[in-house]
Amino acid sequence: MSGKIGQNAGHVFVFRRTVAGVRPLAPVAPLMQRWLEARLRRAQAWMRANQNHLLARLKVWGGRLVFWGCAIVVGLAAVAFALLSDKAGETFVHFAERFPWLPFVLTPAAGAALLWLTREYFPGVQGSGIPQVVAEIRRPAQGPWRPLVSLRIALGKIVLGVAAVGAGFSFGREGPTVQVGASLMAAAGRFMPTTLRIHRQHLLVAGGAAGIAAAFNAPLAGIVFAIEELSRSVESRLSGVVIAAIVLAGVVAQHFLGSENYFGRVVFFGESNELFYTVLVCAVVTGVAGGVFARMLLIPVAGWKGRLADFRAAHPYAFVVFCGLLLAALGTVSGGVTWGSGFTEAEALLSGREEVPWYFGPAKFVATVLSYLSGLPGGIFAPSLAIGAGIGQDLLPLLIDHAFPTSVLVLCMVGFLAATTQAPITAFIIVMEMVAGYSLVMSLMATALIASVVSRMISKPLYATLAEHMLRQQASVEPK
């Protein structure tokens, strides 16, 4: 049968043609209205029954957005730190070339001023920053504690670290970026719900790893650094947290700094049978040098005694002025190669486009030790890589018949960094990503492991020992 539709008094009727005639079935509009009202009542009842669940899910996603946003901020902070540090170092070298007397005035005076700011307004920013994060991760649940990560410390680390490089001290900004990243993540933890189940230690590891990844433009190195140096045992949940932070920070760093490797494109030959001799020589030499370097950096926490130690303890500002004068003299005599992080000199050695004096490695070694002992904020990652490149340059006459020159330089860089930090996996991953040295993976790994073993015969682990010292200091802090 065919049907038709009609209207009456605002209602819609469906008509059916039958034998008896035409009659309406039912009004469609009221039926639809009742159906919609029923659906709405059921939806409201479901929302009332699941209100707590919906709020919990909303909080979880809000916490994730806070975490991801903070990882992006860590990347931006690393970029800003890098650009400001490079500009400060270049400016100092430029004016030192024009006015040779400037380092003898600026370096000691700025050192004293920065030390005063550090002790008075930014306690906890001294040194690299990695030991502070390690100590904060191992922070006891009870007892007095002076924070080693905070927004104030992050600000002080960047400002004072840039100023120290701009005053001629031999510092890098990669290690300090770890403390900056951990501080930012710890601050973001206040806005994350407990249902997200990300503990403060997880945030510290994620922030530190994101910082090292963004600083070196090496995401894989950030993951390995988190496992090897910051946290010895990583849970599955923590692994996801770390990777998410590293990816976001790394994307931001690459967007602003480019996708090139840390040292650009380096040309070298891959593995060969004769490279074994080169690996052994580079590993042993850098292992001894890195062990001595780490032991000298640990002098202040290893029961340093003598007149110089007493002078440093009694007159810290006079001591930093003394260090500044020595750095000014060393930089002037060496032609300015000891000032700053050493990135420019290491890049020149790897590219072969500029001549670097043979004494660059030893001079940079001394300059970095003096800078670290001054008590100012600054890292040793970049100076360690530069020292390793300088050692490789001095070993070239001995190894030139066994390996390509840049291969020797890269092996010495990874060996000295591994010996200094005693974190061989992190060291070879960082260097491999910085120079795209994938054809030298086995040689880099072997050099790092051998150099680390040699270093352990000379010195205790640098960051772990400094962190233990900080924990002992914290135990003596007077509760407020």
From TrEMBL:
Keywords: Chloride, Chloride channel, Ion channel, Ion transport, Membrane, Transmembrane, Transmembrane helix, Transport. It is a multi-pass membrane protein. GO terms for cellular component: chloride channel complex. The keyword Ubl conjugation does not apply. It comes from the Bacteria. Its main location: membrane. GO terms for molecular function: chloride channel activity. It is found in: Membrane. The keyword Phosphoprotein does not apply. The chain crosses the membrane at residues 65-84, 99-117, 148-171, 203-226, 238-257, 277-298, 319-339, 359-383, 395-419, 425-451. PANTHER family: CHLORIDE CHANNEL PROTEIN CLC-E. This is H+/Cl-antiporter ClcA. The lineage of its organism: Bacteria, Pseudomonadati, Pseudomonadota, Betaproteobacteria, Rhodocyclales.
